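Handoff note, outgoing to incoming analyst
You'll be picking up this chain. Sequence as last confirmed:
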Amino acid sequence: IGFPVLIKATAGGGGKGMRLVREKKNFPEAFAMAQAEAQKAFNNPGVYIEKFIENPRHIEVQLLADSHGNIVAFPERECSIQRRHQKLVEESPSPVVNERLRDRLQKVAIKAARNIRYESAGTIEFLLDDEGNFYFMEMNTRIQVEHPITETITGVDLVKEQIKIAMGEKLSCNQDEILTRGHAIECRINAEDPENNFAPSPGLIDGFHLPGGPGIRVDSHIYAGYTVPPHYDSLIAKLISWGNNRQEAIKRMSRALDEFIISGIKTTIPLHKTVMNDERFLKGNYNTSFLEAYSKGESA
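Most recent structure output, in case you need it:
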């Protein structure tokens, strides 16, 4: 397939066990490093190789599949704003996916799930290039962090459906009944310091205030007096906004971020505020390299 390529852990996620290789001479060392990191993170050294697409968009399709042969696909989620292959902002629908491309993505996702006789909630993830070509990346065989934005624009409780599927029940909706209303955005609030190369920021939360108002949802477990431990994933809250259109969803998210108070530790809230005001984001003109400049100490 030629270079560049990505070496990725078969049991991996979140960017662990992954190495980008641009030249053949660097492949053996990168392969060994990816295997070692995969073994340490997942107790499994297995890796695979895929073609590396320069500056793609990360698009995914949510699926539900029951044991009775019913499979439905939901409107795509745009997940291109990420750091070290870990998503930070997601929105649905994508600002660059039209009806024709959406239909193609959904049909491919359903075909893939049917061919492996998949049952449960799951997500097929794709990379989308500048010319509208998309490439299969992976399947997540579980509910995902960003599932609330799909629930928000469709009104379908994905977790409830997943449980019903596990109980052997049929899906409560068919493809024609999945209707999209408005636009939704999710910001992952992490206990990290974006001004210090996203260094982890565990510790005691001594001040806490949740945002509210029309179209705002917060999924979290934290509270004033809670201590964020250093041992686990840094995600501490998910902030979701809904609007009749993308512009309204962005405005509501910006307001909610201003209202969201978490003191005592550093969080990614300031970064999210910057993203919501960035011209490229406002125009929907971004890809997976969006945050590279910010990570180097420049404005996003």
